[in-house]
Amino acid sequence: MRPVDLVVDMPTDAQCETAPKGTAVSVLQNTNTPIFVFLGIVGLMVTAFKFPPLLDYANHYTRMWLIAGGITEVHLAQIYALDWHGTFTNLGIDLMARYLGPLIGVNVLARAILFAAVVLPPIGAIILHRTVFGGSYYWQIAMLYLAWCATLIGGFINFQIGLGLALLFASVDLHLQVRNRRALFVWRLLASLLLTIMHLFSLGFYLALICGLEVSPRLDLRRSLANWSRLAIRIALAFLACTIFPVLLFLRSPVLPGKALGLETMWNATPTRQMMNLFSAIWTYVSVVDVMLLNPVVLVCTNAARTGRFRMHMGLAIAALGLTIIACLSPRSMMGTGWISWRFPIMAALTGMVMFCPLPKLARHEARVIMLALTLVVFGRTAWIGYNWWQGENDANDVISVLESVPPGSAILPLAHLVLTDPLGAWQRHYAWGEDTFRHLPTLAIPFAQSFVPAVFTARGKQPLMVLPPWSSIAVPEGNLSSTGVLSCPSWLERESVLAPYLSNWRQRFDYVLIMNADQPDKYVGYALPGGLKLIGDKPFARLYKIDASFVTDLSTTSPVICPDPLTAFE
Q1: Membrane spanning segments where (predicted)?
Q2: Which run of H or E residues covers position 322?
């Protein structure tokens, strides 16, 4: 059976397989040129911008730098250590840093990994779409739109690479489904092991894809009981193959991800939260821009639905629907892992793109319009991302510049000016819904100043990096940036110290204060800072202050700062 035979034509073969009446013969829809141009542009972007505004990326870079050999630096060897026995998943880039970092250098490796995180999901979707529908279609250009999504802007590098690998592995799976069922089971065992190591969520995505591919594309509900039984057995075998290795690794793991943090859970409990959750599949820096550029893609779909010229794989449609339902029902965070529900919409969107083939045959004039529209959308969005990366690179360079004044072995307290809105032209500093993207830039103090910061990713069960005593007493496995206002407001500082215990006795624990977003006034205290801080590094985005540990606050004077209620400070 050829791959092209594995899809259902909706609603009739005549409607889907012929060009509109009265038009010329349909043209060949060759998408290779725009795809390769896109790959080239992304390659230039990751080469030109070392630290783009992707939330977790700087933290990942720092951890890779340490794993690749930086941990042996004199001052850092006393602070950090590696423990490879504490986790079994989310290890993809860490293993690459361990084995490839010393050979090619972390700068090259980090850029290659970022390139893969951007391009693998859409390229994997394109390859699977070609396998399912048997060729190249202009719809595949639209899949490049999903290269830019909330999980990428969040810097979820392992997750993004895992999505792409799941789609590529599903393409191999589809070939084996119609050829050799024994080889298929062995392949699924191998794929499940690789995806578990890369990121556990990518294994779930792969399982959803292969179950969708196992379901008959036409989904004939009138099939015999024997056919339903065979389908149930095939899906059960898929589950078995994909769960053997994860279960074995789970049972032998000494520490489970997030176990120490308990089952505290946050939900998308309001319609607004659910909307933000589902739109995470497309949202980047400014939601209006993302939605505006999505319109031509939507118009292609609606035109295909209105004219009846489309093809669909019903099994993948069920998978996409299931992933959407899971996205709505999943918690936003649990066991110390954030953005749980926000990972499923991009899975559903990629699956939805693969399941659908609108306008499979186009007349020449139609083909020109469709290709031009989709190409402009994809490259227009890429240019928009490129502009934000260019702006974000300036912010990262400011941080690196002020760190030049820090002697090795210092302890740096990172803070930020929290704002209501970004200044015009600086949209890259926050996501579409207000999450900052610069939170982890202070971790660059480790590779660039060989100094300590408290919030490098060191969660047991998630990363192999650990903090040694006595530094571990002022370290957290994951963390946010507090407002500079906590330094001037004792009651606020006390409450904030519950989540960031390193803030207590900050004058005695740290040597420097590093402030992010310094060119904008903090929404609570403006530019106010307590006494005993000496400015030694001043750039638009970042400022560095030396802490005078001997300074004593004069309690007889009234503070000029109006402190917010600590219970509502971050609402």
Answers
A1: 35-52, 102-129, 141-169, 189-210, 231-251, 282-302, 314-334, 340-357, 369-390
A2: helix 314-329
Comparing 214 with 17, which gets the higher pLDDT? 214
Contacts of 264 (CB under 8 A, 6+ apart): 334, 335
pTM exceeds cut of 0.85: yes
Query: SS3 string of 60-103?
Result: HHHHHHHHCCHHHCCCCCCCEEECCCCCCCCCHHHHHHHHCHHH
| pLDDT, tens only, 43-73 | 999 999 999 999 999 999 999 999 999 999 9
The mean per-residue pLDDT over the stretch 495-514 comes to 95
Distances (CA, A) of 466 to 89, 298, 455: 16, 47, 11
- 140-176 core/surface letters (b: 16 or more CB in 10 A; e: else): bbbbbbbbbbbbbbbbbbbbbbbbbbbbbbbbbbbeb
Q: Which token pair is 135?
A: 């060729």
Q: Do the Cβ atoms of 167 and 354 come closer than 8 Å?
A: yes
Look up tokens 């469709």; give the residue.
370
Beta bridge partners of 10: 310
CB 161 within 8 A of CB 117: yes
Asked if the model's pLDDT at residue 559 lies above 70, the reply is no
Report pLDDT for 254: 72
Q: Are the C-beta atoms of 157 and 117 separated by less than 8 Å?
A: yes
The residue type at 280: S
- Name the burial class of residue 425, with classes exposed (0-12), middle (13-18) and buried (19+) by CB atoms within 10 angstroms of its CB: exposed
Judging by DSSP bridges, how do beta strands 412-416 and 8-10 pair with one another? unpaired
Q: What is the mean pLDDT of residues 541-569?
A: 77
Q: What residues have CB less than 8 Å from 137, skipping those under 6 apart?
A: 29, 31, 129, 357, 359, 360
Q: How many residues are there in the chain?
A: 571
The pLDDT value recorded for residue 7 is 54
Average pLDDT over residues 270-281: 93
**Residue whose pair of structure tokens reads 């309001």 in the numeric block:** 270
Cβ atoms of 82 and 98 closer than 8 Å: no
Q: What residues does 9 pair with on adjacent strands?
A: 311
Q: Within 10 Å of residue 565's Cβ, how many Cβ atoms?
A: 11
Of the candidates 296, 303, 297, 302, the residue with the CA atom closest to the CA atom of residue 362: 303
CA pair distance 68, 96, nearest whole angstrom: 9
Q: Which residue has the higher pLDDT, 160 or 28?
A: 160
Our measurement of the distance from residue 126's CA atom to the centroid of its chain's CA atoms, rounded to an integer in Å, reads 20
Are 539 and 401 contacting, i.e. CB atoms less than 8 angstroms apart? yes
Residue 21 has pLDDT above 60, yes or no: no
If you average pLDDT over residues 524-550, what whole number do you get? 96
Integer Cα distance of 149 and 139 in angstroms: 18
Looking at per-residue confidence, does 181 or 223 come out higher? Answer: 181
Q: What is the mean pLDDT of residues 78-85?
A: 95
